[in-house]
Amino acid sequence: MQLIFILPMQDERYLRLLSEKFPNTQSVITELINLRAILSLPKGTEHFVSDLHGESMAFIHMIKNASGVVRKKVDEVYGNTITEEEKRALCALIYYPDERIELIKRFYAGEEVDGILNINSQISNLKSLKEWYRRRLHQVVEIARAVTIKYSRSKVQKLLPKDYAYIIGELLHESNLEQHDRQTYYNAIIEAIIETGCSDHLLIVISYLIHSLTIDTLHIVGDIFDRGPGASKILDVLATVRDYDIQWGNHDIEWMGAMAGNLALLATVLRVSIRYANIETLEEGYGINLLPLANFAMETYGDDPCTIWQTKDFENNPRLTRSAQLMAKMHKAISIIQFKLEGQTVLRHPEWHMDHRALLDKIDFNTYTITLDGVNYPLLDTNLPTIDPKNPYALNQYEQDLMNQLWRSFRKSEKMQRHLRMLYEHGSLYLVRNGFLLYHAAIPMNQDGTFTETDVCGQRVSGKALMERTDSIIRQAYYAEGKEKENALDYMLYLWEGEFSPLYNKDKMTTFERYFLSKCEAWDEHKGAYFSLADNEQVCKNILKEFGLNPATGRIVNGHVPVRTIKGETPMRANGKRFVIDGGFSKPYQEKTGIAGYTLIYNSHGIQLVEHESFESREQAILSGSDIHSRTLLQDFSDHRIRIKDTDKGKELLEQITSLEQLLNSYRNGSIRER
Description:
By secondary structure, the protein is of the alpha/beta class.
């Protein structure tokens, strides 16, 4: 006797919705077979990076070479059967196919090419362009086959342009022909590609396929923005990446707040950009017009030498068209405006307990001194014509007009608003994925290891609840309306510099002191307890448990604090429970770290931690095949191949399989009718 299961009404409704996509028994069976097969495939490769700080060239190269994975594939496939020069040439083609092909075509056409000796050694005995195409097409297909072997054919096909999907599919996948016949068949396809003039396009498409599949998922653990000039370029490249996520960092929040309309953070973005001679992101990346600021600064501080406001690294930025004096005046003008707007915001929110950080009203304008923590300090700059001692935080009319103009420029930048949407749609404050807990900076903690409870826009929260509430407030700053939006926008400033912000977590941000006071104890910023406690294994296990992960197998990944390898620091902390992967992508930090960044790689074999050296240049990579040299610090391989069924995606697929099995049962017992 057949048993008929009566489903709850909500389950039956779901199955009826599911039947719209799978209308009969055969369609369900086909999908069940497909999903069960996918579960058995090796998991895709995840890459974790952090603290890019606008260094677009190094980041883009890292995407193209997959943190050294592409070169390893070349070594695995070819071993010692081709020379080192040819391996570098092949990698250069895969990394930069458009530019490399153009260079080779110029060479074979007899044009003068810089670095001709390098190219001569790389093409060896390939006497004609046709021979070069033939050899490189075979090689690029071989590398693509090695990369795609662990993916389903349907997944690979979806990544290919329709016009070439069939041809590339034939080249990549094994056939039922005998070995000799198969090779003849492949050769015939290659020859046809060359004869029909499709070689360039096929090489480019297959190279991009390699880029896409060597990094199945990219996790950016905070700080796309900061001193480097290429944050907008990084986001442009991310828009082409198939699967990525962002865990917001403090500098991301700074820019997101500015883009969304927090004027104090807008002023901060401008100040930091000018201070480090990096206005390229603003002017060229986003088309922000800084002429109103330049005019205001000249009118206000025309005779002021602005000695303490000189831009850092001015001489090392040949693209700057303004004089050092004008930049210093702009720097001073926007800094004073920032201090005013910060003070206004802090005083609006006494619940932040940050009144001590509103400093302009603490200046004695008779003696031009300031008293902090009972100590009286003279100011290094006493020319403060825009500050009204009776109302020091009020913008004068000219400052207000300037900020309105700058905000209109931000709001009207189509690219800036598009990138802001990307940051929200692909971003979060933290992420749990495949046993990893990702967040940029900290989980605020007390000295005894308990989680700090603090007020987040009217709610007292700690630990995971604090992170979730904060994530919600960040989204309200963009999506909400009215008073809710205003409060959330204000809170973005707290996240940038507040003591219990999970993105800052220091007792104060001493920006004012570093400008106006000679170096002294007033400059000191004291980190929260997390930054010392999180090197303890048990503390990390407690954090993992708080977020629902298995403390025995889970791991934390964060950045924010550069790892000073030259001082013996290591990115592996707490007996391997926490990875700190800020290794100095940003060039200014490389003197402190001694390296140029880390990539944590998690593939079907296990975990690898890769340390990078500084990137020479894109031009040299194209010309001579120079690469980012990387060193593997850690290999923690599993004793079995990790399959999709072992991942979070596998859990989702198993749930889908359960639902499909219920639908199949409903078709077979007649409770849902097939179509």
